[in-house]
Amino acid sequence: MKSQQLKGHLDLLLLAVLAEGDNHGYAVIEGLRVRSADVFDLPDGTVYPALHRLEESGHLRSNWTTVEGRRRRIYKLTPKGRKALSEQRHSWTTFSNAVSRVVGGAPWPTTA
Questions:
Q1: Contact 47/28 with Cβ under 8 angstroms?
Q2: What's the pTM value of the predicted model, to 2 decimals?
Q3: Is the separation of the CB atoms in 32 and 17 below 8 Å?
Q4: What radius of gyration do the chain's Cα atoms show?
Q5: Taking the mean position of all CA atoms in its chain, how far away is CA 27?
Q6: Which pLDDT value is given to residue 77?
Q7: Fewest beta carbons less than 10 Å away: which of 67, 84, 93, 108?
Q8: 101: Cβ contacts below 8 Å, ≥ 6 apart
Q9: Where are the alpha helices (DSSP H) in the chain?
Q10: What is the residue-level pLDDT of the chain in tens, covering all 112 positions?
Q11: Pairwise CA distance, residues 37 & 12, whole Å
Q12: What is the C-alpha to C-alpha distance for residues 40 and 13, in angstroms, rounded to an integer?
């Protein structure tokens, strides 16, 4: 998928993946890839800055942990992040339904 098409929707996607449970960055990337059937196979350089930005804005919180000798930063949705996810899901549903109506081939209403 072209990065231009993803622009403006990355926060929603990251918040949605983390709503399923706390996780480290690589698992978030894999979650996006798997849940999108490989459409969102995003590079680290796209996802990690977005995770950091979401943390700075208060939508995520992170803690360091060690798993099998490796340090990992675990991201968790905050109440502010859950509210933002709910609002963005609503906006996305409205937008995607409208786009589907326009491009879905529905007949144009005729006037008599």
A1: yes
A2: 0.86
A3: yes
A4: 17
A5: 13
A6: 97
A7: 108
A8: none
A9: 3-6, 10-19, 25-35, 44-56, 79-103
A10: 556 677 789 999 999 999 999 999 999 999 999 999 999 999 999 999 999 999 999 999 999 999 889 999 999 999 999 999 999 999 999 999 999 989 987 666 666 5
A11: 17
A12: 10
- The single-letter DSSP state of residue 106 is P
Q: Tokens 């949705």 identify what position? A: 77
> What is the Cα–Cα distance from 19 to 102, expressed in whole angstroms?
30
Indicate the residue type of 101.
Answer: R
Phi, psi of 5 (to 5 degrees): -70, -30
Beta-carbon contacts of 33 under 8 Å, excluding residues fewer than 6 positions away, are 40, 41, 42
10 Å CB burial of residue 52 (0-12, 13-18, 19+) is middle
